[in-house]
Design brief:
Layout lengths: L3 E4 L3 H10 L5 E3 L16 E4 L14 H9 L4 E4 L7 H9 L3 E3 L16 E5 L2 H14 L5 E5 L1 H4 L9 H15 L15 E4 L8 E4 L8 E3 L5 H14 L15 H4 L13 H15 L3 H17 L3 H20 L9 E9 L2 E10 L2 E10 L6 H15 L6 E3 L6 H15 L4 E3 L4 H23 L8 H12 L7 E10 L2 E11 L2 E2 L5 E4 L9 H13 L8 E5 L2 H13 L7 E5 L4 E4 L13 H29 L12 H11 L2 H6 L2 H5 L6 H10 L4 H8 L1
Parallel strand pairs: 1-2, 1-3, 3-4, 4-5, 6-7, 11-14, 14-15, 16-20, 20-21
Antiparallel strand pairs: 8-9, 8-10, 11-12, 12-13, 16-17, 17-18, 17-19, 21-22
Length: about 700
């Protein structure tokens, strides 16, 4: 029998009592005479249902919650009151209590007959399960439980003056905090943009991944970086734009002489003429090719009439390039700018595909992959619109969607984007015609991307635990792979040799068990076999816990070297395999034949992930040591030279050659220097090369 206590018998407390009355819960409320005696028994689970009054700034007063928790001696405390983010974590540490967060208005109760039959429980999963058992018992299993962390279950409110302000605030907070559990843009991809520096007298065009409010014009984002760089290359071949930062120079650089720049830095072109070229570039990037053609034809005719035949020829070449581009593009609408958003789902996840149509032509696309949640298509699309267009550099007049947002959301979103764009923006769900066909095309592309993603093995339908089980069966191992150790070696021609060991438990990385080793036995000479022997010896000579499987990054040679040591330590039952990178071959002890796993199998993806993680961990440590070594001054190896004296020496002499030429007296005159140390510096510079190498070790 579980003893349940309800702390606070207001509206929420009464509702909790009604739900749990079959369990005969105890009630404590100091403000109600019949319930003002705290029960003198061991309480298993206590529900905190005390009020948290709102304050003037929109925050809530949690002092009564803290007082209640401090008094409560239950094994698990469930907070039903609304508390700001971070409160539960703070109370857990301060009062050493086991706390689960379950705000009432997020759960079963809306104080109405149509309240959802589900409950959110945030906190330690074991405690959440114990609380959930109560509801499963009462509801006969017909009750949905959502498990999360305490931070997700906690709520912090900010009061705004209007719905549009609330929407903008939501978008800004999402952009600022990048919430882990947010539905959209979880992967935090940063796509490149093309930046035209219109704020400069002679604008440049280059690639950037940061959007700033600096007066420049941004085009993108580009999902295909290769296509974007090809666009930049094409633009620079068509238009002689400056690509350097230097201005006001005496003579132009090589780019001018090979006719790739008009040399505005040397004053060879006027601001007006250069501006015409930048205008043409922007028109091309905007997709206004027909208008650009007319503009270039006019410029060519004017140049020819003024007998500026070289200028006319240059404009002619630009015109021909624009015509070729225009011919390659397919006109998809009668005109105008619009975005088309397609959505597709399958068992591997959700894909959103967005097509960009500018001037009636399809000029690019972007895509986003999401994990499957229980959200509807309408909810996903609404969340996407908020987050995507909050950062978009351009908002078109029309946005085509397969499902429109809810009516109230639709009005707010259109009002918000209209204010952002400075003109009317509409959301449409086309039922017929060209726009309907385009929307169908976007949906088909999203579905195809999901299919290709799954086929290429970029995502697996199996969980980490299932992948570990599959690997166990593939290797014919008797025990479950609860722990996997993987070793890798990294060095540069034998210098700074290091080893890494990464640990995966039930198919998931366990970073607290990661270890890195500085190899001593092979320093100065590249010997991966001996290095591997050293690291496995150091790992297993005094082991606290043995793994279920050991993976050696390498082929037969590395595997044999590791096995020699492991078996020599008496670990005859420990499974050890080698993984060769070339064909992803798996080598096992005593077998001349390698094992090749299915390319699309979850087991191969798991073992590749483990190997790649070991490589990453090793090379990161190696690079750290190498950088540290490269940053060391030769002066650091001389006794008596610290940071301050080294800086003083460099300030006085500016170079090692000057230090070497200096006398002992001159060295001793340096600020902070004494005569014995000056003598040691003088003697060091006069050592033979072998003697210097010995000192520098």
């Amino acid at each position: 029998m579980t003893n349940v206590l309800i702390l606070g018998y207001g509206n929420i407390g009464k509702h909790i009592y009604d739900e749990l009355k079959t369990m005969n819960p105890y009630i404590y409320d100091p403000n109600i005479p019949q319930y003002n005696n705290y029960p003198k028994i061991n309480i298993d689970i206590a529900f905190v249902c005390v009020p948290t009054d709102s304050q003037a700034d929109g925050s809530c007063d949690t002092s009564i919650v803290e007082k209640t928790i401090k008094k409560c001696n239950a094994e698990i405390i469930v907070i039903k009151s609304a508390i700001p983010v971070g409160t539960a974590e703070y109370l857990e540490k301060k009062h050493k209590k086991r706390i689960v967060v379950s705000p009432e208005y997020y759960g079963t109760t809306q104080h109405s007959d149509n309240s959802p039959n589900f409950l959110i429980l945030g906190g330690d999963i074991k405690d959440c399960v114990k609380v959930a058992q109560i509801y499963y018992t009462i509801k006969n299993g017909k009750f949905r439980i959502i498990y999360t962390t305490s931070k997700v279950a906690e709520i912090e409110t900010i009061v705004t003056d209007s719905e549009v302000e609330a929407l903008i605030l939501e978008c800004n907070l999402i952009k600022k905090h990048r919430p882990r559990y947010n539905i959209m843009l979880k992967d935090d991809k940063t796509y490149p943009y093309l930046k035209v520096t219109l704020q400069e007298d002679f604008p440049r065009i280059y690639v950037t991944r940061r959007q700033l409010r600096d007066g420049a014009k941004y085009y993108g984002p580009y999902a295909d970086a290769g296509a974007m760089h090809a666009t930049v290359k094409l633009l620079r071949s068509m238009f002689p734009l400056r690509n350097c930062r230097k201005m006001n120079t005496d003579r132009p650089c090589l780019q001018y002489h090979i006719k790739r720049c008009l040399a505005p830095c040397a004053g060879y072109v006027s601001r007006e003429d250069y501006g015409k070229m930048i205008k043409a570039v922007c028109m091309l990037l905007d997709g206004r090719t027909s208008e650009l053609e007319r503009e270039l034809k006019l410029q060519m005719q004017q140049a020819a009439e003024n007998y500026a035949f070289e200028e006319a020829a240059r404009v002619r070449d630009q015109l021909q390039a624009v015509i070729r581009i225009n011919e390659q593009q397919k006109a998809v609408t009668s005109g105008g700018d619009l975005d088309i958003v397609g959505l597709a789902k399958d068992s591997s996840g959700t894909c959103l595909q967005i097509f960009f149509v500018r001037g009636g032509k399809l000029i690019g696309r972007d895509n986003f992959f999401l994990q499957n949640d229980d959200d509807s298509d309408q909810e996903i699309l609404t969340a996407f619109i908020k987050q995507y267009y909050n950062e978009a550099s351009f908002v078109p007049r029309e946005i085509l969607l397969p499902v429109l947002p809810a009516a109230d959301e639709l009005i707010v979103l259109e009002e918000w984007l209209t204010a952002r764009a400075g003109r009317k923006v509409e959301f449409l769900q086309p039922r017929r015609g060209t726009k309907r066909e385009l929307l169908h095309l976007a949906v088909e592309n999203a579905a195809k991307l999901l299919e290709e993603r799954l086929r290429k093995g970029q995502v697996s339908l199996k969980t980490e635990e299932q992948a570990a089980e599959e690997l166990q069966k593939a290797l014919q191992l008797p025990n479950a792979l609860e722990r996997i150790d993987c070793f890798d070696i990294s060095h540069t021609q034998g210098t700074e040799t290091v080893a890494s060991m990464v640990v995966f438990r039930n198919g998931k990385p366990c970073k607290k068990d990661y270890r890195r080793y500085k190899i001593e036995s092979t320093e100065g000479k590249p010997d991966d076999f001996k290095s591997m022997q050293e690291v496995v010896y150091r790992r297993y000579k005094d082991y606290e816990e043995l793994p279920s499987l050991v993976i050696i990054d390498g082929g037969k040679g590395q595997l044999s070297s590791a096995l020699e040591v492991i078996r020599g330590l008496g670990l005859h039952e420990l499974p050890v395999i080698g993984l060769a990178k070339r064909e992803e071959e798996i080598f096992t002890e005593g077998s001349s034949e390698s094992i090749l796993l299915d390319r699309d199998s979850a087991s191969l993806h798991l073992i590749q992930r483990i190997r790649d993680e070991a490589h990453r961990f090793a090379i990161t440590y190696h690079r750290k040591l190498r950088s540290k070594r490269n940053l060391v001054s030769v002066l650091d190896h001389i006794e008596g030279i610290g940071t301050k004296r080294r800086q003083a020496l460099w300030k006085r002499f500016q170079s090692l050659d000057a230090m070497k030429a200096a006398s002992v007296e001159e060295l001793a005159e340096v600020e902070g220097m004494n005569y014995p140390t000056a003598q040691r510096i003088y003697d060091f510079f006069r050592l033979d090369l072998p003697e210097k190498r010995e000192v520098l070790k």
